[in-house]
Structure formats: C-alpha cells, structure tokens
Amino acid sequence: MSEDRMGRLDGKIALVTGGARGIGQAVARAYAREGAKVVIADLNGEGARVAAAELGAEAMGLAVDVAQSGSVAAMIAAIIEAHGRIDILMNNAGIGANTPFLETTLEDWNRIVGVNLTGAFLVAQGVAREMVRTGEGGKIVNIASLSGQRGANGRAAYGASKAGLELLTKVMAVELAEHGINVNNIAPGAIETDIARIMHDRATRAAYGRLIPMVRYGTPEEIADAAVFLCSDEARYIHGHTLNVDGGFREAGLMFTRDAPA
Ligand SMILES: NC(=O)c1ccc[n+]([C@@H]2O[C@H](COP(=O)([O-])OP(=O)(O)OC[C@H]3O[C@@H](n4cnc5c(N)ncnc54)[C@H](O)[C@@H]3O)[C@@H](O)[C@H]2O)c1
Known about the structure:
The protein is of the alpha/beta class.
C-alpha cells in the first residue's frame, strides 16, 4: 500500500475462514490490498500458510476445522495472542454436494450442516464474543448462497444449511447491533471455483446458462469486491442484509430471446 493511498480497511485485523483457495482466498487478497492484516484459517492448514505467505509478512495462516468447537477456540486464541483483537470476520468456509433429497443420508446431512451452519455459528459466536470483550465493535460477513433462497436440484442439505445461515445472520444483526457489530450476508450465485467444479455437472451448467441474466458465472474477485464494501465504513448503516452477487439470477423471471409476434 503506497503511503499516499489509504486502504479502506487500513490496520484492521481480518479473519477469513476457508481462505486457502476459491472465494475465501480472493477475499483475503482484497482485504490485504485494502490494508488489513489478514489471518487465513482453513482445514487445509498448509494451504492457509501458503496463501498467507503470498500476502506478505503481516498475514498469518492457521489450520482450523470450523465444525469442531475446540479447534475454533484454539484458532481464536492464536489470533488474540498475535493481534489482541479481531475487527473483521469473513465467515466463508463451506462444503457442498449435489445429492437428491431421496438419496441424502443422515451422514451427508450432518456433514454439510455441521460445516456450513454449525461451523459458521461457532466461528461467528467466538469472534463476536471477542469483539464484545474489546468493546470496539466489528464487521461480520457470512457467506450464504442463492441455493439457500430458492429450491434447486440436489441442494437439500446444502440449501437448508445456507437458509439457516441467512436467518442466523438476521438474529445476530438484531442482538449484536448494541455492541457496534455490523452483520451481513453475501449470497453468491454461481461462482467459478473448486466447489462449483464438484457440484455443477454439465446439466447444471447448461441450466445456469439459461437462467442467469448476465449469462456467465461470477468470479471470486466479484465476491471479494462486495466483501470489501460490506466491511468498509461506507456500509456502516447496512445491517442484517443479504447482498446477492449473482448476475441477476435471484431476480430473474421469464427470460427468452425476442421473436416475431405469434
Ligand atoms: N462457488 C460457488 O458457486 C458458491 C456459491 C454460493 C456459495 N458459495 C459458498 O462460498 C464459500 C466458499 O466456497 P468456494 O466456492 O470458494 O469453495 P472452495 O471449495 O473452493 O473453498 C472452500 C474452502 O473451505 C475450506 N473448508 C472446507 N471445510 C472446512 C472446515 N471444516 N473448516 C475450515 N475450512 C474448511 C476448504 O479447505 C477450502 O479451502 C462456501 O461457503 C460456499 O458454500 C460458493
């Protein structure tokens, strides 16, 4: 960061879960570009350290399993030891699957809900408690999904976990406002990452091609730009909101190529 240009997140301590790759990594890069000291925490601890090293000496990489309360507590303790506080949480770690409702096993359900909903809850609660303790407030952005807003093939556990997270965000926004903690969601549409490569078969991609007004997948950097905005001072009165970053997918209805009148 050159001295004549202030970053929008200058000096903030920012935690990005699931930041070793994909959307989280793009967010970590954007936060660092805006002047934040970034902590990347991921199930892939080595990947987290490599991604952090790319951001420079002030960034830190940690191993965490967000679905395990002891692992989350150890992650938060390590950040507090290093920095004394956490100003920003990008609650991004998540897993997906494309499994029909009738074939979804209890194990599938528990694994996905355990990471995407319970994991997000554990991290958000632990971080929010630190924000309350320091009395300095903060910003929390949860990563929900368009799949938590609309019915879609194969998204029983995944969609339910993300719908739950969207509601959890509203409760957090109501309860944490008095502590100066700003809470919002980003709901990505179809973003080209490894999770999309696992979840999106050819039929899924063809369907998105018909259903997204902007007729393309989004990029991790497009989510990162929204994440910087929501964590900047410019977004200070946006609270409990879900910002869809989806090329217009949620809002689209009837779409067709104009033809001669019948
Ligand atoms: N890519 C999309 O189209 C899309 C759409 C909507 C929402 N999302 C959401 O965005 C977030 C990021 O997705 P992505 O596309 O970058 O996926 P990705 O698979 O590329 O990255 C996810 C990261 O989370 C980490 N992770 C997984 N389980 C973890 C755990 N238990 N503890 C800690 N880290 C864990 C992985 O190691 C990985 O680095 C997820 O919450 C996902 O549900 C993605």
